[in-house]
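Subject: Interface between my chains keeps coming out wrong

I've been trying for a while to get a sensible model of this assembly. When I model each chain on its own everything looks fine, but I need the whole thing in one frame so I can look at the contacts. Pasting all components below, labels as-is. Any help appreciated, I'm running out of ideas.
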Amino acid sequence: MDFGSFLTVPEIKVKVVTYRDIFQDKAMIENRFGEEYRDRSAVIKLDPADLKQLSVKKGDTVILKNSFGRVVVRAEESGYETSHRGIAYMPNSPWSNILVSDETGGTGVPKFKDISVTVTSAKGEKVTEPGF
Amino acid sequence: MEKNYHVCTGCGLLCDDIEVESEKNIINKVYTACRVGVAHMKEGKEEAIFRVDNKPVNEETAISEAASILKNAKNPLIFGLGTSTSETHKLAIELARKTNATLDDTSSFCLGSLVEALIHNKIKTCTLDDVRNKADVIIFWGADPSDSHPRHLSKYSYFPRGSEKQRGWEEERTAIAIDIRKSHTAKICGNYFFQIPPGGDTEFIDALIAGLSGKLPKTSYNYPPKKILELANILKGAKFGIVFAGLGLIYSLENLEPLFRLMKALNEKANFHLVPMVGHYNMRGFNENLFAETGYVNSVKFENDIVKHGPEYSIVESLKAKTVDAALIIGSDPLSSLPRSIAKNLFEIPVISMDPCETLTSRNAKVYINTAISGVEAGGTATRMDGTKVSFKPVVETNHPSDEAILKKIMEAL
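Reply #2:
Try treating it as a single job with all components included. I did that and got this:
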């Protein structure tokens, strides 16, 4: 039994892999501060079983948190046939970059595609604005 | 009727078959380009904007403020240039020399090491036209061109008829995706999609090398050896093979040695080439131009005619260590594209942003200069992802100054 299911607000740990999305790229070129870019960027794609464990429905907002930052994004089902519990996907964007570690081992290369976060329901909290 | 084709500078593919309809220097219709390309060609705004401390100023004031920031800095950072022409690169390098600056581009945290290996002839490469005309086995490794370079498969790598591939993808080409998720490109590859766990690339490479020499391929994640042997057999039969290496692959490797091993093993059994999936339209050009001037592809620091190089001079490490005391950002948005924990250090130094569009960086900059869109409103030359040089003229006229013109003026003001 997973410990998370005993908490009042279920929390899971996931590894986030970032990717590129043509529709999001197009929205970014049109307006980086627009609704479409936000809608296509501030998203995390989870395994359906992970969504269920979080008691979160598709389209609900979730809080992603680690020691580098906290963002509220929309949760979606990944749609992949193969199960990928514990691994989630986000389009590469200012939202995902809020969570990227500053640890680089002196290489100059941050781990953009390897982000560890905890996920909890945001209970209706709005998607984070990307500004400072 | 002779047609007037334009080049799209929306990504590293530099598609050269674009037609547009424009009226009064506004592009209304774009033909042939992809979704991203159309948005890029229509990006033009009406009025040029110059700001200092978020207040509108004229061009002269913005340039003089930019010059004074660079003059007063002991170690300014000049960064960006992936979406600038090679002519602009040469000016930026000259400006960096003049101001004893740290100079870097996005390649320091993406594909710079791979472009450097190609410059040093460490890996066999070819052009995208060679791929279209000859390639029979195409590998997309940690790359999803259907999203990142939308016309890659249709113009070059998979679908088109080529001079030696008249029967096309249906009979004469095998497309293979090796990735940690079933991307849009992986879907097109059908049964030739090999899904590996995150970080599993090096092991997969070594298992594949074992498979190529008939040994039992083993991985700690128990990838079915039979599938790896099947893949090895396809690769062995390639008459003209190509590996398109994406960020997914490069970020997963500690260094490029596994990739060198793989290319060597592939070329012992077959004929394989590699092309990096460069995103920005002239990132490879920046690497080549800086290499020609300094012997390095990125992350350099000029100091009284001496050129220092190393990861400590990359944007990431110099912002982390706070070694730079001003920043000139050209056509890039580090406040969006870098980890926020690092990018926030830009708030402690004066930033000059030169960009055709408003970004988080431009909105938070001390000086903002709204430049022409390189390739749409300004012409020049660039290097495509495969190393091919491409020239282009502006598609429409504009009152926005090109980044080349602005750099010239900043240098004069210095």
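Reply #3:
Confirming on my end. Chain A has a mean pLDDT of 93.
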